[in-house]
Specification:
The chain has 479 residues and is mainly α. The chain has 20 helices and two strands. Helix 3 packs antiparallel against helix 11, helix 12 runs antiparallel to helix 13 and helix 16 runs parallel beside helix 19.
Length: 479
């Protein structure tokens, strides 16, 4: 085997280098003293990773096609790396706590390991390579969820996550075995060009359903969403933010590519499957979100609903759909991380409270954070002129390209649900601006990292919608 092929995997190679540097830095430094240089070092390294991923523009293939990175994959890798950079910036306040400071090195290594697995998953050209990348991302993520194992039910959340992840992986492998039995190969190109779709239609459809079920767990689509609320609530808030955007974005993009490229000959079958899952995900999540009083559980159901909107882009089965999905993920990353950055800041300064009542009268004592929270929530709801409105418009436009009456019906249901989602997002705004309390959260000053993370997220929420460069960059890579 030509080991020089590893040099084609530049984003993955740089992530391995970052992982080694983080390990050495953690090993040689004393955990008994405050390591003020550690977080800036990791931020610089992750900024370098964003630049490296952004500069990749060519289609790259290695190991006989098992690894295949197309321009659209480089775009999503850039978005995921940028999201991870924001998480690393925002994590510093949490990692300075006495009960977590000694785990700072482990946190960075687990985050980078998870991102490495997602990159491998996005660039897979073979189902086994895809599965290995998925597990490389899932196992470190379970460790991240359990990082605060003596606080906030973190261990319980990790147990629920890893058990459901194990079950979903088994279901997915079962589906992949059906596909191998039908086609005799697990290469994406080999299956897409095969003539066995008609000969083994039942086996292929079963394999597709089981595969979709396994990956639906990662994206938190209904009815594979039952782990989400408990895991989001129990995990550290920083990890919850990372799990809600970066992990979801990688899985959604990979599912989109596999459905459009590998299962294109049976598009009729998986489109009907998507119709059902999208309607259930958006509607069920919105109805449950209204009932939540704990903000992290609230955001869990919000993320399930957002996953349904993301998958709308896949219905169109076109380059416009890939573009709309990637753009939606880009906007969703900055808006959702802005919300979780505020939640983390309030949690650290209010005795660990994450219930919605903790935000009553929040505007009176912390007007700037209240305003930034409102901007992020309005973007998630799709209110103009923020970027979330444009991202929703593009996924609706991509879905409308399908042209069938069922697609239009799904779009109508999704549009109705945007009104419902606006209502429950406004519940938080109401708590901050209208609800009064005798003991509002005292005024506090955010640290530099929290301000920087919020500044980056707010800039993204505003600029991604009004600067056409971002959409054009994604569209050019998706052709």
């Amino acid at each position: 085997m030509n080991y020089g092929q590893f040099l084609y995997m530049i984003p993955e190679a740089t992530l391995m280098a970052i992982l080694v540097i983080a390990f050495i830095a953690d090993f040689i430094s004393s955990k008994n003293t405050e390591r003020k240089w550690f977080n800036p070092l990791m931020c610089i390294l992750m900024l370098g990773q964003v630049i490296v991923s952004f500069l990749q523009t060519d289609t790259v293939q290695a190991f006989g096609g098992m690894y295949r990175a197309i321009p659209a994959a480089h775009v999503i890798k850039t978005i995921l790396a940028a999201g991870t950079l924001i998480v690393v910036i925002q994590a510093r306040q949490w990692l300075r706590r006495p009960d977590t400071s000694f785990k700072e090195g482990e946190f960075y290594m687990l985050v980078v390991s998870t991102l490495l697995g997602m990159n491998m998953m996005v660039s897979a050209g073979h189902f086994l390579m895809f599965f290995l990348g998925l597990e490389m991302a899932s196992v470190p993520m379970a460790c991240l969820v359990a990082l605060d194992k003596y606080r906030h039910q973190s261990a319980e959340a990790a147990a629920k996550y890893i058990l459901t992840a194990t079950f979903s992986s088994g279901v997915m492998l079962y589906g992949i075995s059906f596909l191998y039995g039908a086609f005799g190969t697990l290469y994406f190109n080999g299956i897409a060009l095969s003539t066995a779709f008609a000969q083994h239609a039942a086996l292929v459809i079963l394999g597709l359903v089981f595969f979709f079920s396994g990956l639906g767990f990662k994206i938190s689509l209904v009815p594979f969403h039952f782990w989400t609320a408990d895991t989001y609530q129990g995990a550290p808030t920083t990890v919850t933010g990372y799990l809600s955007v970066v992990s979801k974005g990688a899985a959604a993009f990979t599912l989109c590519i596999i459905l459009m490229k590998v299962f294109a000959p049976i598009v009729t079958y998986w489109q009907y499957l998507l119709y059902i899952v999208i309607v259930l995900s958006i509607t069920v999540a919105n109805l449950f979100a209204i009932r939540q009083s704990e903000l992290k559980r609230f955001m869990a159901f919000s993320s399930i609903s957002q996953a349904g909107y993301i998958m709308l882009a896949v219905i169109g089965n076109s380059a416009t759909g890939i573009t709309a999905l990637s753009y939606y993920i880009l906007v969703y990353v900055v808006a959702n991380l802005a919300v979780f950055t505020v939640i983390a800041a309030v949690e650290e300064n209010n005795g660990g409270r994450t219930d919605m009542d903790a935000y009553n009268g929040f505007y009176q004592t912390n007007p700037k954070l209240s305003f930034l929270m409102t901007v992020a929530l309005f973007s998630l709801a799709g209110i103009p002129p923020f970027a979330g409105m444009f991202s929703k418009f593009f996924v609706f436009m991509a879905a409308a390209e399908q042209g069938s009456y069922l697609a239009y019906l799904v779009l109508f249901i999704a549009l109705v649900n945007t009104v419902v989602s606006l209502y429950y997002y406004l519940l938080i705004v109401k708590a901050m601006y209208i609800k009064q309390t005798d003991s509002p959260l005292p005024t506090f000053k955010s640290d530099v990292n929290t301000k920087l993370a919020l500044a980056l997220c707010t800039a993204g929420i505003i600029l991604f919608g009004v600067c056409s460069f971002f959409y054009n960059w994604i569209f050019a890579a998706s052709l």
